């Protein structure tokens, strides 16, 4: 099996009513939500699950808060640094929340995480309301699609047979992966080829952008990763082969 993978993280709110800033006590929050008895039952299982995955040190101690700002920062990372930069930031945020008990609503926590991965522009984002509407739009789309919890995986654009809810064994993902990798040549563009977007009416701001073909989505659309890191599924009529000018060279590193 030979498949190129690119991971991007989408926003979701389990509880959008949580406070911002330094948040609230995590244990008290979960006791109110699940009950003290259930929390006591959950803890040993969670600690063992993290340890089994090679991540010692999980604790329910610490604080929990509203995650809107963290999602804005992750969207900024995706747009400015691509999926790789966003993934770097996610790993740091997970460490701060799950292992160090720090609230992802804290401006100081978010700025420290951004500095750790060398993400430029974080402070400007957090001091403005930029990307708030974008985050809420993604969350509302998830709600409307019936997503009610995390983790939730959409593979190769999602759709029937390519969406997975909750923690699942590797075999579930391998079965989906084995069905992928269909050739896009029949649609006129080979995987890995450079294309430019054209005549797109739904999102005209993408017209003229350059991207890389990464696979087919269904039988009528082609999945393209734009140079910004964003992925779009387009019809062949909205793509054309991109041929760089003779005096210009572009290098895309996935």
3D structure, described in words:
The chain has 254 residues and is an alpha+beta fold. 37% of the residues lie in helices and 14% in strands. The chain contains 7 helices and 9 strands; from the N terminus they run βααβααααββαβββββ. The strands form 3 sheets. A 5-stranded antiparallel sheet has the order 8-7-6-5-9, with no helix packed on it. Strands 1-2 form a two-stranded antiparallel ribbon. The protein has a two-stranded antiparallel ribbon with strand order 3-4. Strand 3 and strand 4 (163-165) form a beta hairpin. The chain is globular, with a radius of gyration of 20 Å. Residues 246-254 have low confidence and may be disordered.
Throw out a few tags for this protein.
254 residues; alpha+beta; two-stranded antiparallel sheet; 7 helices; 9 strands; disordered C terminus
Following the backbone from N to C, one meets helices and strands in this order, namely: EHHEHHHHEEHEEEEE
Structural class: alpha+beta
Give the spatial strand order of the biggest sheet: 8-7-6-5-9
Q: Could you tell me the number of beta strands?
A: 9
Q: Beta-sheet strand percentage?
A: 5-15%
Uncertain ranges = 246-254
Largest sheet properties: 5 strands, antiparallel
What sort of overall outline do the alpha carbons produce when their principal axes are compared? globular
Q: Calculate the mean pLDDT score and round it.
A: 88
Helical residue percent band? 25-40%
What's the layout of helices and strands?
Blueprint: E1 24-25, H1 26-34, H2 36-52, E2 63-64, H3 68-99, H4 107-116, H5 122-126, H6 132-144, E3 152-154, E4 163-165, H7 170-178, E5 194-197, E6 210-217, E7 221-226, E8 231-234, E9 239-241
Antiparallel strand pairs: 1-2, 3-4, 5-6, 5-9, 6-7, 7-8
Helix pairs in contact: 1-2, 3-4
């Amino acid at each position: 099996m030979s498949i190129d993978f690119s991971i991007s993280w989408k926003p979701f709110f389990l509880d959008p009513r949580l406070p911002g800033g330094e948040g609230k006590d995590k244990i008290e929050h979960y006791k109110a939500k699940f009950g003290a008895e259930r929390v006591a039952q959950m803890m040993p299982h969670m600690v063992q699950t993290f340890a089994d995955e090679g991540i010692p040190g999980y604790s329910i101690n610490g604080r929990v808060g509203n995650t809107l700002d963290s999602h804005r920062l992750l969207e900024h990372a995706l747009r400015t640094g691509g999926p790789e930069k966003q993934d770097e930031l996610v790993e740091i945020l997970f460490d701060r929340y799950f292992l160090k008990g720090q609230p992802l609503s804290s401006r100081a926590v978010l700025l420290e995480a951004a500095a750790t991965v060398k993400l430029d522009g974080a402070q400007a984002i957090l001091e403005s309301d930029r990307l708030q509407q974008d985050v809420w739009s993604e969350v509302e789309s998830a709600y409307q699609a019936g997503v009610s919890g995390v983790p939730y995986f959409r593979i190769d654009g999602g759709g029937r047979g390519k969406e997975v809810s909750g923690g699942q064994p590797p075999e579930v993902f391998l079965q989906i992966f084995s069905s992928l990798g269909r050739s896009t040549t029949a649609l006129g563009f080979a995987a890995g080829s450079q294309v430019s977007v054209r005549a797109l009416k739904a999102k005209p701001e993408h017209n003229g952008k350059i991207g890389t073909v990464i696979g087919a989505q269904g039988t009528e659309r082609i999945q393209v990763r734009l140079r910004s890191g964003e992925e779009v599924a387009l019809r062949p009529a909205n793509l054309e082969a991109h041929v760089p000018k003779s005096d210009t060279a572009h290098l895309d590193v996935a």
